[in-house]
Each structure stands twice: as structure tokens, then as C-alpha cells.
Design a protein that fits this description.
- The strands form two sheets. Strands 1, 2, 3, 4, 5, 14, 15, 16 and 17 form a nine-stranded mixed β-sheet that branches.
- The termini are far apart.
- The radius of gyration is 21 Å and the shape is globular.
- Helix 2 packs parallel to helix 3 and helix 10 crosses helix 13.
- It is of the alpha/beta class.
- It comes from Kibdelosporangium banguiense.
């Protein structure tokens, strides 16, 4: 099967392939086979990209997707209030079916806004059934997803058997793969961190870990021989410059969640400091109770903040963070993140004729500085059209919305919380 996307402005994010003011992208059996100014493919299905920007889909390297039903409730929360609300108060009332709906609608939201690849940093594994429900939701959404299994916080409970069980179920699963979401040196004993990382290495899993406070956690990991080029460190706001250089020397990656970090008081995003250390940062949404679920907002915040701090960041840099750099951090750089012949066709078409961005003079600059989810007209994952003419294909979204509202209302009633933003959880309650 062949598909020809024709007549659009093509941003490949691949220096070797280059960008085209007007060009075509040919897809054969789900793989990009050619990018050129004009391609003759009379047997191909045509997608007319006139007045559109054709580019790789976005990559979100860290999202707690199960929390989708509580979108906006935590807009005014601090980080500590978020922990109390979502982990101490809301999480215990989630049934497996609630997790399924949260993950399903959250992943659909991401896909709808052009995020073709997403790492689901899952830390609601109350039972094996909860974990299976989260994975099932990712499978039911036609996006590329990395299931980051997490054992929770502040625990040294053994996870070996459960990780192996989940891993065995995801072998050869196609678009859904697995990573291990580590408890990390701030949440458990170093001995447990070492055991978790050894398990991940044995199973061939990449790892992802939150590093949110001041101190020397990276130095401690280095001392114990636990820095890897397969680990993504989330946030890292309090980490000193010398420790960021340790991450660069190890080949690790950093996931910046600028909206959450600023709003919740975690700290200034480390985008520029990570670049100065010799790393390419990636971008992530984190949690939708506090912020929006689209990459446009995340890119704009990261861009504006770093420009305000030192003026040294370009829009093209930010677009790379959100695409090819994110794909590399997820271990998927060989198959996605750029419109490179030989890679899977994870492609989005962005409207360039909408009044909010017209005239579209500077494609990369306009997408980063003024883009929004309403511009995402068409989405392809591995060559399959999953959003066409602004509508997700093959999903009964109204019914799923109704089910999510029922789930949200039951959890809120059981937990005794208000949904209008008036509830202010405090640590210790």
C-alpha cells in the first residue's frame, strides 16, 4: 500500500533530507520511502497537503496519563498539594476500569493534538489488574506508546515478578513497548535502585526516573555505577551543573516539563543548562490536572522562559526537542522523530491557512510561537491515518467521554473532593 502526501511545506527534522518549501512524502507499507519536491506515484492514495505543513509527530517523554479525568482540578496546586491530592486522596479510589478510561482518553487527547509517540509514566499500579487496564488502553488507541511501569513512591517492595509479567505480555506488541519507571534515589534505597536497574538491563528496558530536589543524587548514582545512556531523568531542576555534565558524559537524557515545573514551584526549567552541559533536552506534559495536554503549550513555555533567561534558544531547537530528540530519548530514534526515508511514517499535517497563524511566514517559528491543537488536521502513525479532516478515526469519542465523566464523578464522591478548583489539599491530610 502506498500513500503520497503532496503539495505541503515539509519540515523533516533531518538535516540530511532537509526541508522543502513545497514537496511530497511517499509512504510504502507504513514506511517513508521518499521525500522530494515532486514524486510521481500514480498508484498511491493521495493526501492533499496544500496549505499545510507536513512534519513528524510530536514525542511526549513523560505523562501520568491515568489522571486525565481530573483535568484542570489542580490548576492552582503546588507540587506538594498535587502529591497529596492525586497519590494520597484520588489514587486509592481508582478501579482498573477508571485507569483504563483515564489512559484511553488521555492518550486520545495526545494523539488528537499531534503527539504520535508518548511515554506513559504509570504510577497507579495498585494491582496487576490496574496495570493491565493501563496497557489495554494504550493498545486501544492507534498511537505509538511506551508503557513506563512504575512501582510507586517511597517503597522498596520487590517488583521483579510483576515487571517480568508485564514485559512478557508486551513482547512483539508493535506500537506499545515498555520502559521501567524507576523509584529512584530520592524515593527508595540505593540498593533498590541498583536492583531495579539490573532488572531493566536484563529485560532490555530503558528507564525513566524523577529527580526533583536539590542534593547530589546524580553523583550518588555515578558513585554506585548506575548512570546509563538508557535512562531519562525527569525535571532535574535542583541538579547542579556538574551533575548535569555527569549525565552528559553517561549519555543520559533529560525530560523538561516546563509548565508543571513553573506552576507547581518545582523550579526553573533546566532547558538551557542541559544544552550547556552537552545534552539535548526533551519535552513532556507531566500531568493534566495542572496543565494542558498538548505539545504546543509546552514548546511555547520552554521557548519563552529560556529566551527570557539568556536569549540563546531558537524555535528550531525547541521543535527538535519535541520530535527527534524525544524519539531518541525513548529509544525510538531509528523508527520515528523525523521524516527520514526508512523510518515509520509518524506524520502530522498542520494547517497553515488558519487565521491564527496566517500568513505562515516562518514555519518552525510559527509552530513554536503560535501553534495550537486546533491546527492538527491529519495524523498518521506507522502510515495509518488515525485523524482525518480534524476527526479521530474509528473511536466513539462521545461514548468514551460519557464513561469518563461517570468514572470521575464516582471517584470524586468517594474521595470527598471538589472538582471546581476550590479544594486545597495540604500535606499530611
Amino acid at each position: 500500500m502506498r500513500t503520497l502526501i503532496t503539495g505541503g511545506t515539509v519540515i523533516t527534522m533531518d538535516p540530511a533530507t532537509g526541508d522543502l518549501a513545497q514537496g511530497d512524502v511517499l509512504i510504502t507499507d507504513g514506511v517513508i520511502t521518499e521525500v522530494a519536491e515532486r514524486i510521481d506515484a500514480p498508484d498511491a492514495e493521495i493526501i492533499d497537503a496544500t496549505g499545510r505543513v507536513v512534519m513528524p509527530g510530536f514525542v511526549d517523554t513523560h505523562r501520568h496519563t491515568w489522571q486525565t479525568a481530573f483535568r484542570g482540578v489542580g490548576a492552582d496546586w503546588t507540587f506538594m498539594q498535587y502529591l497529596v491530592a492525586m497519590h494520597d486522596t484520588v489514587k486509592p479510589h481508582n478501579r482498573p476500569e477508571d485507569v483504563y478510561l483515564g489512559n484511553l482518553l488521555g492518550r486520545l487527547d495526545a494523539l488528537n493534538s499531534g503527539i504520535t509517540t508518548m511515554l506513559d509514566w504509570f504510577h497507579c499500579a495498585l494491582t496487576p489488574e490496574h496495570t493491565d487496564a493501563a496497557v489495554a488502553a494504550l493498545r486501544d488507541v492507534p498511537g505509538r506508546s511506551v508503557f513506563g511501569f512504575g512501582a510507586g513512591f517511597r517503597t522498596s517492595d520487590p517488583i521483579d515478578a510483576e515487571v517480568r509479567r508485564v514485559r512478557s505480555g508486551l513482547t512483539g506488541d508493535g506500537l506499545v513497548t515498555m520502559a521501567l519507571a524507576l523509584r529512584g534515589p530520592e524515593m527508595t534505597a540505593m540498593e533498590t535502585v541498583a536492583e531495579d536497574m539490573q532488572l531493566a538491563a536484563e529485560l532490555g528496558l530503558r528507564t525513566t526516573v524523577h529527580i526533583e530536589t536539590d542534593g547530589r543524587p546524580i553523583a550518588e548514582l555515578l558513585e554506585h555505577g548506575l548512570l546509563r545512556d538508557t535512562t531519562t531523568f525527569v525535571h532535574a531542576n535542583g541538579i547542579s551543573d556538574d551533575q548535569l555534565r555527569m549525565l552528559a558524559d553517561a549519555g543520559s537524557s533529560v525530560s523538561v516539563s516546563p509548565d508543571v515545573e513553573l506552576k507547581m514551584g518545582i523550579g526553573w526549567p533546566v532547558t538551557g543548562r542541559v544544552l550547556a552541559a552537552g545534552l539535548r533536552p526533551t519535552l513532556s506534559i507531566d500531568d493534566c490536572p495542572a496543565v494542558g495536554g498538548d505539545m504546543f503549550s509546552t514548546m511555547r513555555t520552554a521557548f519563552a522562559v529560556q529566551r527570557g533567561l539568556d536569549g540563546g534558544l531558537s524555535a528550531r531547537d525547541v521543535l527538535e526537542f519535541a520530535t527527534v530528540d524525544g524519539a531518541n530519548a525513548c529509544g525510538l530514534g531509528s523508527c520515528t522523530g523525523s521524516l527520514t526515508p526508512g523510518k515509520d511514517a509518524d506524520v502530522i499535517l498542520v494547517r497553515a491557512d488558519d487565521l491564527s497563524v496566517f500568513p505562515f511566514n516562518n514555519p518552525a517559528g510559527t509552530i513554536v510561537a503560535a501553534g495550537h491543537p486546533g491546527l492538527i488536521e491529519t495524523v498518521l502513525v506507522a502510515g495509518r491515518v488515525v485523524k482525518r479532516d480534524g476527526v479521530i478515526v474509528g473511536m466513539d469519542v462521545p461514548t468514551l467521554k460519557a464513561r469518563l465523566l461517570e468514572s470521575r464523578d464516582r471517584i470524586a464522591a468517594d474521595a470527598g473532593i471538589a472538582l471546581d478548583g476550590t479544594w486545597r489539599p495540604t500535606p499530611g491530610e
